[in-house]
Design a protein that fits this description.
Largest sheet: 2 strands, antiparallel
Shape: globular
Number of helices: 24
Strand order of the largest sheet: 1-2
Strand content: under 5%
Helix content: over 70%
CATH class: Mainly Alpha
CATH topology: Amino acid/polyamine transporter I
Order of helices and strands: HHHEEHHHHHHEEHHHHHHHHHHHHHHH
Distance between the termini: 41 Å
Number of strands: 4
Length: 499
Amino acid sequence: MLKFPILFIFLSILSTIFPTTNDAYAAENIGSSILIENAEKLINFLVDKMAFILFYPIFDVPLLVFWLITGGIFFTLRLGFVNIRLFAHAIRVVAGKYSKDSDPGEVSHFQALAAAVSATVGLGNIAGVAVAVAAGGPGAVIWMVLGGFFGMSTKFAEVTMGQKYRVIDKNGRVSGGAFHYLKNGLAEKNMPRFGKFLAAVFAVLCIGGSLGGGNMFQANQSVSILTNTFDSLGEIDLLIALALSVSVGIVLIGGIRRIAKVAEAIVPLMAFIYLSAAIVVLIVNAENLLPAIQIMFTEAFNFSALGGGILGVIIAGVKRSTFSNEAGLGSAPIAHAAAKSKYPVREGCVALLEPFIDTVIICFITGLVITTTGVYEDKTIEGGVLLTSAAFSTVADWFPVVLSIAIVLFAYSTMITWSYYGERAWMYLFGKKRIGIFHIIFCTATFVGGIINLGIVIDFSDLLLLSMAIPNLIGLYILSGDIYKDLKDYENKLTSNEF
């Protein structure tokens, strides 16, 4: 059984891939250069074609954004605003009111929520909000919140199906995710071949997304923010990347139980650090708080600008919202499938809290910090994490250090959960016997992501990640009648006090 020996194999691979002598670099030949050049051309070609399709404008809205937000609106209406009706019940479930150790599964409701939130709460909540404000102004934040509101219903739908069609082996180990409900759910609808096709496509996209956006990008930004914030670390970026990859590997090998335990500790900590710091910024700039809120709502609903500005505001907000909370991508069902529960709908209720935490709370506060401090008006500051950092620096010169710590925690939590997502997808395609290969690939990608300029590789992997929404939502639309029926059955039992 492959466990910690994988780390030694991984370190050996790194020493081979990244030799320290100049002679090794001198050995590079023309053939390898041509191979790399052709590979870059191929990736560029694929990125261009995928981007053309995924971001093709529908009513001036990128196709993928239109696809995701339409899904959110559909399930909100189809399920009778489940995101509002069962919100209080979801909180009670997470608090443990309905929990039993005898229920099938591996982790508690709170641990499953923490693991899933750790994957979504990341750089999108810091840099992504800043990008939305830079592109669409403060009003974009309000549309981010509205996008998150509708995304709550999509999360409910996909996680309910993820729990319903999960597979538990004889040792109590759980395997769940979109690939299972796409394959088995659609088979029950007399579409077995179509279901298997969608499941396989989803699994391939999930592996690609986990290695890129869920791993290499996070590692890259973590090393960058640490070396930029702390000058003394600039000379040891290789060691930082190596330490990051090994720490991810140790948690990854422990499976969902170890991931859930780490996430259970990290998620509250990182949320406390970031939100506390953000609140301090708001207190220091308290005189601008109410005017900032007024500006955000005014610009969000300034319909006199319908001929131009407001559409850009809506697109900027909704786009970053869908990318931030991952509602509709089909990733969250993988983590939630491991929760101890007899009722799939119950875990679906837990999941609808994710977009609320990720987008309605954290993204809104980030947008409020950027707007209140007025840094968004400074066009010399590049949109992204630097804009958020500039907002934090209005308190004190050292305050961006707090932001850096939060960013590293956000990125690390994202990596450990996406490692599990990629692992489950790998197992679906190749089985358990080859899982050690994925562990090595993922840990190596963490190291590589921390030390190189990612460029086109990240663009390609991000497109793979976002493409997960296509097969996932197709399956959910087909299964929407079952989701509605399961919801009604659960609510009837809830109102009759059967629980």
